[in-house]
Amino acid sequence: MRFLVALIALTAFASSAWSQGHQPNVIYLMADELAYYELSHMGNFRIKTPNVDRFASEGIRFTNALAASPVCAPLRCNLMTGKNAGNASVRANDGGTPLRADEVTIATLLKEQGYATGGFGKWGCGGRDSTGVPEKHGFDVFFGYYDQVHAHSFYPPYLIRNSEEVPLPGNNGGRKGQTYAQYTIFEEAVRFIRENSKKPFFCYLPFTPPHGMFDVPADEPAWKLYQKEAWMKDPKVPQDAKNYAVMVSMLDRQLGEIMDLIKELRLEQNTVIFFTGDNGGQDRFKSKDYPR
C-alpha cells in the first residue's frame, strides 16, 4: 500500500488527475501547531509517532515546504483559496475575519467536479452568520469548530454542523468534561469516509490537537506508549508538556486508523492522503533539563 505525504497545491494535483479522466479521493489531515521536529521520523526521540513514521516511509516527505502564513486563520485562508498572504482576505489572527462571499476554495472546485466534500475540525475562516461559513464555500458538511475562540476548548458545550449547534453531553467549556471533542470529530470524519466510499470524496481534517489547551483524556490509548519513559514521571516536566506529547501520539493513532480504514474499504490505490502541520509549532516546553 502506498500513501503520499505532501505539501503541494491540491488544485494542481486535481487538475492533473482530471486531465487523465481520474478522480482520486483526497484526505488532507492538518494538525494545529504541530512542528516538524515533533515527529520521530524527523529526529524527535521523545514523542512517539509510529504511524506517521510508516506513512513517511511509504510516501514523499516535503522537508523544505513552508507555511504561507505564520498563524492559524490566515494560513487556513491561504490553504483553502490558494492565495498568498499578500492577497488573502484573512490576514489577521483575530478569529473573526471571514472569507469573502465570492472567494473560491479547493472544496468549491472539487464539488464542481462531482466530489463529496466534508470538513471536520477547526475552520477558522468565518463564524456563523458570516460570509465565510464552510457550507457557503464548497463543503457539503463541516463539523467541528467554526471560530478559533470556540476551538480553544476540547470540552466545549457544543460543536457545529453546517452552522447548527450539536450539544456535547457533560461539557461546560472547561478543561474537563464528559465528551472529548476530538473523539467526536474523528468519529464524524470516519462516518463521512465510509458513507462516501463509492464516489470521489474530499475529506478535510483540520484537527485542533496538539494546540492548547493541552487536554487529553486519562484513558487515551496513546498514554501507554509512554509508560516506561522516565521523563513522563519527572516532576520537573510540566503536565501540559506530557499531555502535549500524548496529544501528538493520539493524532498519530488516528492517522493510522484512517490508513487502515482506507485499506479496509479497498481504496488505497485511489486515495491520496496529506499529513501536515499548519503554521508550525513553538518551543514552549523547552528547558535547561530538557532542551528538546
Characteristics:
single chain; seven-stranded mixed beta sheet; alpha/beta; Alkaline Phosphatase, subunit A; 7 strands
Structural overview:
The structure is a single chain. The chain has a single domain, classed as Alkaline Phosphatase, subunit A, CATH 3.40.720.10. A hairpin with a 2-residue loop joins strand 4 (158-161) and strand 5. The chain has six helices and seven strands, in the order αβαααββββαβαβ. It has helices at residues 10-19, 50-58, 72-81, 106-112, 181-195, 239-264, and strands at 25-31, 116-122, 141-145, 158-161, 164-167, 201-207, 271-277. The protein is an alpha/beta fold and 292 residues long. Strands 5-4-3-2-6-1-7 form a seven-stranded mixed beta sheet, with helices on both faces.
